[in-house]
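If you are new to this repository, start here. Below is one unmodified record pulled from the training split, so you can see the exact layout before writing a loader.
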Amino acid sequence: MTGLWKIVVEAPDADAAQAVIAALDGQGGAVSAFESAPGGSWRIDALALDAPDRGLIAARLALAWSGLKGEPPEPAIARVAQQDWLAANQAGFPPIRAGRFLIHGSHFTGPFPAGVVALKIDAATAFGTGEHGSTQGCLLALDRLARRMSAPRRILDLGTGTGVLALAASRLWRRPVAAFDIDAEAIRVARRNARVNGVAGLVRARRAAGYRNRELWQCAPYDLVLANILARPLARMARDLARALSPRGAAVLAGLLPRQESFVLAAHRLAGLHLVARLEVSGWRSLVLARAPLRSFNRPITINGGKP
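And here is the target side for that same chain:
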């Protein structure tokens, strides 16, 4: 492929990375974010078919940087050498195991171990192909909840990305899942993945900004809510989550670092929710919350790397 360009921007932390991603949205055909270490700096890459406008990118970065410390970073722009992108992408995405779930690309055809729930998710322009610790933590939480709670009738996946959590829940319980995301591209990807995995009739992907959506509330209350987003949005939406959750429902929250757990938990405790379990995978924390203590969990448990 000729005429391919790469934009690289370094961000000092997760908040700055979100600002960079927002600034590069629409400037490239695919945007990827890579964390150097839990709580460390980030590198954001974007690919474009045409030579990027450096001035426009700098202006968008300056606008997105509002409220953050320091000056916005300088973008690095370079032409990309021609190569077999499909082969390179597939080589960088081996199958990933998280509990009973096996996340794999379309290039992997098996064999599959007995008892696994195989989900076909190709790397795409939406978040959630199983590599990230927050996604794996959510999948491990789903695996454990499936063994300890009755099948939920109504399920919500907020911030669905590629739809991986919605697919996992629908495959576990064969129940409908309402999947919402603020990004139109994520909804397109989630719908495609639902078709590929044979659950298009169960996973209903729609665009919404948080809980501000009439269709979301028409399906409430939910017996299970999945929200793999970021710490601050999770804390801000704590009261909305409590309103959306059924009396015996549970929620899996992810996208936060261990140092961010205290203020996320505080917001949800004020909303009347209780900690059931925490999971930590690759330095990322996932929390299981409920309005009332789940009888199958005698006390809050901590699971590191998927092992109690």
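Two things worth knowing about this chain: The chain has ten helices and 15 strands. The mean pLDDT is 85.
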